[in-house]
Write a structure and sequence with these properties.
Layout (H helix, E strand, L loop, with lengths): L2 E6 L5 E6 L8 E5 L4 E4 L11 E5 L4 E5 L2 E2 L2 E2 L3 E4 L6 E4 L20
Length: about 110
C-alpha cells in the first residue's frame, strides 16, 4: 500500500507525492500534474511500509507517520520540506503502529 498526498505549491504548481508500498521501500516519486511527468523525490530516511502521508492544506506541510520499518511498528514521524528536497524528523507519535495502515485527514472548520 502506497501513501500519497497532493501538494499545491505557492506558485500554483500541483504535485502528487508518493511514498512507500506494500513492501519496505525508501523511494519517493513526485508527479507534476502540469507536465504529466514523474521525478524522483528525496529518498526516505528509512525503509517503511503501511504508513500514512498527509498534507496540512493551510501550510502545505506534508507528514509521513506510523507504519512499519524493518524492526516492526514505528512512531517516528517525518516532514517533507517545502522545496521537496529533504525529510526532517519531527516529534514522534505516542503510539507505534505495526503492520496496519494509519490514515489521516484534515477537516476544514472542525
Amino acid at each position: 500500500m502506497c501513501s500519497c498526498a497532493l501538494l499545491e505549491l505557492d506558485n500554483n504548481e500541483r504535485k502528487v507525492v508518493l511514498v512507500g508500498g506494500g513492501t519496505f521501500w525508501d523511494q519517493v516519486a513526485v508527479f507534476d500534474s502540469d507536465t504529466g511527468s514523474w521525478t524522483a523525490g528525496p529518498v526516505f530516511p528509512e525503509s517503511r511500509a503501511y504508513g500514512a502521508l498527509t498534507q496540512v492544506p493551510i501550510s502545505n506541510r506534508i507528514f509521513y507517520f506510523g507504519g512499519s520499518n524493518l524492526e516492526g511498528g514505528t512512531n517516528v514521524t517525518y516532514e517533507l520540506s517545502n522545496d521537496l528536497l529533504r525529510w526532517d524528523a519531527v516529534p514522534a507519535m505516542d503510539l507505534a503502529k505495526d503492520y496496519s495502515a494509519v490514515y489521516a485527514a484534515i477537516v476544514y472548520n472542525r
